[in-house]
Write a structure and sequence with these properties.
The protein is α/β, with parallel strands linked by helices. It contains 20 helices and 13 strands. The protein has helices spanning 2-5, 26-46, 51-92, 108-111, 114-118, 131-140, 151-156, 175-178, 214-222, 281-290, 307-327, 335-338, 343-348, 359-365, 381-387, 404-414, 418-429, 439-450, 464-479, 489-498, and strands at 9-11, 96-100, 124-128, 145-147, 164-167, 184-187, 208-211, 232-234, 259-263, 294-298, 352-355, 371-373, 395-396. β7, α9 (214-222) and β8 form a beta-alpha-beta unit. α10 packs parallel to α11 (307-327), α17 crosses α20 and α19 crosses α20. The longest helix has 42 residues, at 51-92. It is globular and about 85 Å long. It starts with a helix and ends with a helix.
Amino acid sequence: ELVNRQVMRIAHLPGYRQDRQLVVLPRILFVANIVLIAGLAVTVLAKASLWPLLIAAIIDCGGVAFVAIQALRMQLGIRTEENAFRVALNAYEPKFAVYFTGPEDTEYQLLMWLPYLERIGQRFVVIAREKQASLTFAKATSIPVIHAPAIHQVEDCVTDSMRACFFVNNGAKNSHMVRFSQLTHIQLLHGDSDKASSFNPVTAMFDRIFVAGQAGIDRYAANGVHITADRFDIVGRPQVESIAVTDASIADTPDERKTVLYATTWVGLHTDANYCSLAYGDRIVSALLARGARVIFRPHPYSAKHAASVRQVARIDQLLAEDAAKTGRHHLYGEAATEDMSVFDCVNASDALVGDVSAVATDWLYSAKPFALTNPLGLSTEGYESEFPLARAAYVLDEAVTTLDEVLDKLLHTDPMAEDRRLIRRYYLGDFPPAHYADAFVDMARRYVLEDNVPQADTIGPTLDSIEADATADVAAVDEGIAADPVSDSDENMARTHR
């Protein structure tokens, strides 16, 4: 079994066929031995014939010998097969690699990037350190997928034809790949938010850091993580291209015709990073139902791993089921919202969002539709906006949810922050034309894949402070009658937002 775990597994690599595996798994023999021992005990107590057990024992011993021979053959043939793999990989001539390491159920972190990496139009391979991840990726793509469980096998996955390697998280095993200095190592991460994971100091070990907008750069410095600005590239968040953008107001639409998405994050690993609002989520949903709104409820998948969150999710599901039975409203929750629909499907099907601090809220910003954020940590208004600048375009609930009615009035009716969202969107998600939004990522990635020495373009955008300063200066110039360029709506709005 140990030998089996250390074997490389390769899928979809042209010119390579792998058929070496354990035909009889040791765990099957383990169960068979237990059954055999139990059978022996029963036979002795019943004073029955031992011949059937003797035959079973002979078969079992044969199975053990067969597995041992398999394991020996595998051990002796590992290097031969790895050499054959190297020949096939070199012949394939991949231009770049995508590297993944992470626990089970985190495969989505890479899956969200695969379509855009494929758009680069160059050959590449996916290197996965965990078996389950490799199986998931092999089912999701026709790109070669390599399961390299041992550190020395990672070296076998690097070819002279490779120019770059992309990463989607800050997993501990990333260093096993980053050590190959001949490659340009590019960190993509798997979502843009103001959470601590988006300014992890470990990110500093990568050559390039792709961010959606200037906010992705500023949050490192704002949190004491010093990475020089010239190592960042603003490329947008290509996944949001499937989000429909609308500037239409929902103020005059009756509440019973409005759909509100309630999307929560998970509790996190530390108390001071628990941005999850599920503890009072039933109050939020009850208030929406009281207004006659249709609700889409989408909790973070990790909520299923936390006992208290499981109970809270079940309570909200129950509220929605009872209301649906009573009113006939078609709420979406459970598998209907988490399995049958993607998060972007949920965004497009909703008129407004109540969400936690997470990448979902940042992605929602692209839609231009109104949204509210929860404040489970009970931060002051200034502290909240300082730690989570996205809140400057949102309606923020207080920790005790005493402002719920006021927030919902703004969210669903008056919407005074419509212009603020447009400017904050540029700050968080870049300033790229919607028709070709994803091209910013694809074009930048292609440069690193195809060129050895990429000249660093001016990819750094304006900060919130600089936009506010420019806007304030221009407004003052107009007020004093000085000839000056007219202030753009976005600059005027940023000054108002920052104040």
